[in-house]
Design goal:
The structure is a homodimer. Chain A is α/β, with parallel strands linked by helices. The first copy, chain A, has 13 helices and eleven strands. Helices cover 52% and strands 14% of the residues of chain A.
């Protein structure tokens, strides 16, 4: 299948690698506003050719938009306008409601399948692209009732070819859940990096940093160009998640301050339950041989 | 060297493995108040024999205390009282000022070398013990002027035999720096686990959790028995670090709330600097062939 990827960074580049490996894409056309990234992507063999946005969406079967969500707001309507009327469009961004709302009256709304594969690293650009980045992870498809069945089926098949499981949610539900499970951890790491750097000498941080600090603060390395638009577009739920987090931190702090050590133990023991949650002993993910899917939509 | 390890969990057990491997310890005696842990440690071959505290400290050259810091407060004076007067004692706990103060007038204060190796995992008990847990990490030695030179030299040699670098700090400085670089990341992870579990269905957490959430929340799996006494004993600096962290989170939240996106970008770009700090390009760690040490004490 002739596939166009718009945005050849960590996500678009990793997607290109796996779509080629799985033979889902037979020809890969790349678009990138950053000329240097476009050149690197070609040199790395991520795509077969680089083209302008307009040319790249004209004669292709599948278009994947993998650019920061603020840029996607500008690019998505242009893609829908200029592309072949039978083509399928999907995207990879972490905030979905604003994107979906922005094209809800577009005559080609049914060609679009809003998606969010829950995978990434703290690195960016074509050189950060990794094989199997998505394998075993979940792809969230949003508002599936608003996509044409053939377009939805194609995107499901694409994510399955990457080894992904699929969850269906409304755009609003996905924005709420990812605020807590993804956007909040990023905000927590950014603030941790800023707090520690404000108070400790950088040599002391380096010398004392063990695996624990490195792991907790890792997401603070993530690029601003990708992340500030996510916080901006999903501001309602990101603020809610930060308020809940600050409340729990305050409670933790107060239990120490007021020497309520039984309370402190209780907070730690409750937090420890995340081990079982992450081991997934209670997951009700539906499994069958063909695909693993889960419907969260009420 | 005949060595007694009090506490055969993650830290004491890992220490036993490496002291045996490096041949620093020729005979290993273990003490553990938890009979099951003592039995496991013997079965795993971590130690050669299990004994009572009193017997185990009588005829030994080196005693390492690797138990939660609240328990250490009770055990350390007993060890100093009962041991051979030429023996050396060290410990592995993460909060040091209260420990040091508690025995400052003990006639055998000079036999004690307060230490904190900056390494661990989120797991606990003898089965969590790992080879090379300490390799390449830093061991902080506190208030070195209050230890006898022969005792200090022995503990330096022990940590070097584990492949560790050594930093010297006052107990107060170590408590401040580890509050920010270690205790705060643990508190941040505990509160993150509690916040997310309070707001999201556990199946959704499992299904959506990608590497980013898992990494940021990992320390929330750490045991209460080890961690609540650290927060308690280092409460002054832990509270300071939590207040600084909450202030930075609030600033992050407010920049989103008030749509100050330039400010938000600035906060993210500043946080990104942690990448360079952790890569250590600016570390001034003194290196020579014998040992790598750094004096932070002013």
């Amino acid at each position: 299948m002739k596939t166009t990827i718009i945005g050849l960074g960590l996500i678009g580049g990793s997607l290109a690698k796996d779509l080629r490996k799985s033979k889902f894409a037979t020809e890969l056309i790349g678009v990138d506003a950053n000329k240097n990234h476009a050149k690197q992507a070609l040199e790395l063999g991520l795509v077969d050719q680089i083209n302008t946005l307009e040319e790249a969406v004209k004669n292709t079967d599948l278009i994947i938009i993998a650019i920061p969500v603020d840029k996607e707001l500008e690019v998505l309507p242009v893609v829908l306008d200029k592309m072949n009327g039978n083509a399928t469009v999907s995207d990879m961004g972490s905030a979905k409601k604003i994107i979906v709302d922005s094209i809800k009256n577009h005559p080609r709304r049914k060609n679009f399948v809003p998606a969010h594969p829950m995978s990434g690293t703290e690195n960016s650009g074509p050189t950060a692209a990794l094989e199997d980045l998505f394998k075993g992870k979940i792809a969230i498809l949003c508002d599936q009732e608003n996509s044409g069945p053939q377009h939805l089926a194609l995107i499901e098949k694409m994510f399955q070819s990457l080894g992904m499981n699929i969850a269906y949610m409304s755009a609003d539900e996905q924005d709420h859940s990812t605020a807590f499970v993804s956007h909040l951890p990023h905000a927590a790491a950014y603030a941790l990096a800023n707090a520690v750097q404000a108070k400790e000498d950088r040599n002391i941080i380096f010398d004392l940093a063990s695996g624990g600090f490195r792991s907790t603060v890792r997401l603070a390395k993530s690029s601003s160009s990708m992340w500030h638009p996510i916080f901006q577009q999903n501001s309602k739920y990101v603020i809610e998640s930060l308020d809940v987090y600050i409340k729990h931190l305050q409670e933790f702090r107060d239990s120490i301050k007021h020497e309520q050590y039984d309370k402190l133990k209780e907070l730690i023991v409750n937090a420890n339950k995340i081990r079982v949650v992450l081991d997934g002993e209670n997951s009700h993910m539906i499994k069958n041989e063909e695909k693993i899917t889960k419907f969260y939509t009420k």
